[in-house]
């Protein structure tokens, strides 16, 4: 399993979300973490980002950058 080299905090910053919202998504998706600085597996990071995009929780410019 590869790592995306993205932490929960970095995903929150990239998508202008509170860290608590990203932690909640991790809990909802069953993704384990120790702290907000936890580096996520590639598949887990993709799942969190996909959920953020599906919920429309980021600005249009963020969606363009991640596409």
Q: Give the terminus-to-terminus CA distance.
A: 22 Å
Mean pLDDT, all residues: 86
Tally the helices: what do you get? 4
Instruction: List low-pLDDT spans.
Output: 60-67
Q: Describe the biggest sheet?
A: 2 strands, antiparallel
Structural class: mainly alpha
- By CATH reckoning, the class would read Mainly Alpha
CATH architecture: Orthogonal Bundle
> Helical residue percent?
55-70%
Q: What spatial form do the alpha-carbon principal axes imply?
A: globular
Query: How many extended strands?
Result: 2
Helix/strand order: EHHEHH
Spatial order of the strands forming the largest sheet: 1-2
The Rg value, from CA coordinates, equals 11 Å
Strand coverage percent: 5-15%
CATH topology: Arc Repressor Mutant, subunit A
In short:
With 67 residues, the protein is mainly alpha-helical. It has helices at residues 8-14, 19-29, 42-54, 60-66, and strands spanning 3-7, 39-41.
Write up what this structure looks like.
The chain is mainly α. It has a single domain, classed as Arc Repressor Mutant, subunit A (Orthogonal Bundle). The chain is 57% helix and 12% strand. The protein is built from 4 helices and 2 strands. The chain has a two-stranded antiparallel ribbon. Helix 1 packs across helix 2 and helix 2 crosses helix 3. The longest helix has 13 residues. It is globular, with a radius of gyration of 11 Å. The termini are far apart. The C terminus is likely disordered.
């Amino acid at each position: 399993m590869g790592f995306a080299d993205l932490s929960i905090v970095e995903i929150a910053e990239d998508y202008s979300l509170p860290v608590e919202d990203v932690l909640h998504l991790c809990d909802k998706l069953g993704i384990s973490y120790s702290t907000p600085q936890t580096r996520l597996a590639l598949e887990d990071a993709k799942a969190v980002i996909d959920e953020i995009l599906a919920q429309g929780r980021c600005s249009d410019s963020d969606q363009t950058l991640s596409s």
